[in-house]
Amino acid sequence: MTTTPGTDVTSDRARLEANIEKIEVLSQRLMEAISRRKPINHALNGPDPLLYGKAAQAYWMEWMQNPAKVYEQQVSYWGKALSHYFEAHSALAGGQLTPPDDTGPRDKRFSNPLWDNHPYFNFIKQQYLISAEAIHRSVDEIDDLDPKEKKRLRYFARQIVDMMAPTNFFATNPDALQKALETEGESLVKGMENLVADLEANNGELVVRLADENAFKLGENIATAEGEVVYRNRMMELIQYKPTTEKVRETPIVLFPPWINKYYILDLKPQNSLIKYIVDQGYTLYVVSWVNADESYSDVGLEDYIDDGYLTAIRLVREMCGVEQINAVGYCIAGTTLALTLSLLKQRGDTSVKSATFFTTLTDFSDQGEFTPFLQDDFVDGIEAEINASGILKSFIMSRTFSFLRSTDLIYTPAIRSYMMGETPPAFDLLYWNGDGANLPGRMTIEYLRGLCQQNLFSRGEFEMKGLKLDIKDVDVPLMSIAAEGDHIAAWKDCYRGVQKMGSRSKTFVLSESGHIAGIVNPPNKNKYGHYVNPDLKLSADDWQAGATFHDKQSWWPLWEAWLRKRSGKLVPARTPGDSAHKPLCPAPGEYVRVKAA
């Protein structure tokens, strides 16, 4: 095959001109998308400026009272920065094109070999890491500052450090530069297409897509466990799952998932579906699928979730199964609300719940953990103002909050891949679920943030509802609590402290490896994450773990099932979904779960 001289040049020029035309069109769409962005209450965009003023005041007080300490910090920073600069300069001046030895800890952001063996990129990386260390050290060594404010300052300092990472900028990201050269700039055009598409999909708000939204269909390749919606009201759909065994345990299970996200995290695929696992062990399982709130739900509170969700589901399941008691399960905020419900039932003398299981559940908020920055008045006041304007807490605000707790993994790395590298988001079921969020009713959100998180009223026995004061000590049914060692949403030590305060005489606490999701969605067939058990719950959290028996690479699911079996009665013929009074309305996963957050 022969080519005409100049053909390649002509082809390259045509490709360049086509890309320029695409960029012009995309730039216009970009500006139009940004213009559609509605302003959010300013208090949601950062802390009260007084925080920085207090930090500066504390820093200067430190300077006045202990100048040697501050001087040492500055000298240490400049010493490391200049030392590294002169090492790199000396190597280059001597014709040595290899950087100095890198003895620091490994950082997955800098996995490209060029960060280690190319003088330019190595110099940038080292200077960034030296500066990051200096910033963190400066915050850590401020003494004259309230511990809560210091924790907040540490969080915002980390956000600044993470944002300024050289990987986040095209000119200092070797992966992005290499991809642009290899594709002759096509990756940048695709990246801009991805950026514009994300802005247009979210009315001008930059919400990075984490997964390919076209790769999954509810009920087809995700959320596929067979069942029927047997009841529906304004708050929930009640799904009863089809039995897979000829006989089942007499006492049914009612599982309450969080309404911050959708229930199918427990049914992503058959291999890791907790829902399928429970049914396969011979249990009648009901799962609540919560409504995705819109503005008409602005006045819905925790009391509505309890009345139209918990109490209604418990009553219906008892009727359909012809039993006096059920076993209840609550996950995250639904576990917190299950504890409120149990206190209410206790004070009413109602024994409908035989046992309770809590997944990553907080009930004692005396230590706000990593959420401290978001649970102070400046932020909660901002959320309340936003709710007063729209009636709901929109899903993307919650998603953004959770994402910034792990900004490198959930914001910057996906943004780099999508916008700099021009890659299509992966077809990953967990990330698809993570992006399929839910709006929260306004009243409920404020009750939760003010009454539970900020004032810790339930743990103090002062959470008022229906003329009663709900108290954590009223939670006296046999219970098991499963927390996750790496959980950054519901820290395990805080979960443990809440269980210690509960009034049950039969309490089991299990600590799973991994985090808020993987610690719970941990099927036995994976042999991936282990768990700790220790029957002595009078110990401090650290002593409890130190004295616990560790089961390496063993899921806690079989342990829980054995515990549950003892509280589930005899075997009876398997129950098909619904009954004469509650005909199936539609197949699982139902209709409420399909509603997307605005």
How far the N terminus sits from the C terminus, by CA atoms, comes to 56 Å
Uncertain runs: 1-5, 51-71
CATH superfamily membership of the largest domain: Alpha/Beta hydrolase fold, catalytic domain
What is Rg?
27 Å
What is the domain tally?
2
The CATH C-level name of the largest domain is Alpha Beta
User: What CATH architecture of the largest domain would you give?
Assistant: 3-Layer(aba) Sandwich
Helix % is: 40-55%
Shape descriptor reads: globular
According to CATH, the fold-level topology of the largest domain is Rossmann fold
Walkthrough of the structure:
- The chain contains 19 helices and 17 strands.
- With 598 residues, the chain is an alpha/beta fold.
- It has two domains: 23-168, no CATH class; 227-370 and 440-594, Rossmann fold.
- It has an eleven-stranded mixed sheet, sandwiched between helices. A two-stranded antiparallel ribbon has the order 3-16.
- Strand 1 and strand 2 form a beta hairpin.
- Helix 3 (67-93) packs antiparallel against helix 5 (119-140), helix 5 (119-140) runs antiparallel to helix 6 and helix 12 runs antiparallel to helix 16.
- The radius of gyration is 27 Å and the shape is globular.
- Residues 1-5 and 51-71 have low confidence and may be disordered.
